[in-house]
Specification:
single chain; alpha+beta; 2,3-Dihydroxybiphenyl 1,2-Dioxygenase, domain 1; 23% helix
Amino acid sequence: MALTRIHHIGIAVHDADKTAEVWRDTFGLETALDMELESQGVRGVIFPLDNCEIELLQPTRGETGIAKYLETNGEGFHHICFESTDVATDLIAAKESGMRMIDEEPRVGLTGMIGFIHPRSNHGVLIEYAQPPDDAPQHSGPTSGPGPHALHHMTMAVNDIAPVQSEWTERYRLTPGRYLESEALGLEAQFLGLGPTDIELVRPLPGSGGPLPRKLETSGEGMFMLALTVRDAGASVAYLRGQGWTVTDANAGGFISPKHTHGARLRLSEA
């Protein structure tokens, strides 16, 4: 196992140019890559943060995987990518562990040599392994401004934390971290670390309401939210509200309505 960090978060969109207005124009991120893979019928636009990347995926023709995903699920989170130092070996290990594979051997992708593991083996999350080329350029997020500059964690909605924690710590060498149970938030959460970022497993407490139990009821387990790090949460919330955005619970850093981000539920926080 040679996984080192969350390399990027993939977001499926109908129009990458329109969605880029969120990440580039509103959040102030630079475009590191805008490329079409004709053989796969997909256009990818990548925006770097300090510790990972945001990857927008737009289908360029029908009957592709991204096109079918959008038809079924609409815009929103598509996959999480783990960076690998040896993607071929990691794909073999994943297959030998009994996971259902989309790719058994590496293939060329937007970020180097890649391979995918089926979401049915990972509680609704499509997993990608990526091995960037040795000469891949190093990018970072903005050094100033109200927008996010890093990923703090990716939140995954689950029906039961224990089995997912057990599987993911063994499969991906994640390190268990902070656990919390909050009646006020109506959830319990377990953080699992990989490099500079975390994956947060969250389960709604019985009787709680809101978008978390609705997500589990309507589409099942899977990617739920990104927590992005900003330098001044109050200033970021004020800036976005000034743009006409709906941002709630400013005391917690601010939760952004996914209607502004083409289906991607986001949270802003200083830590």
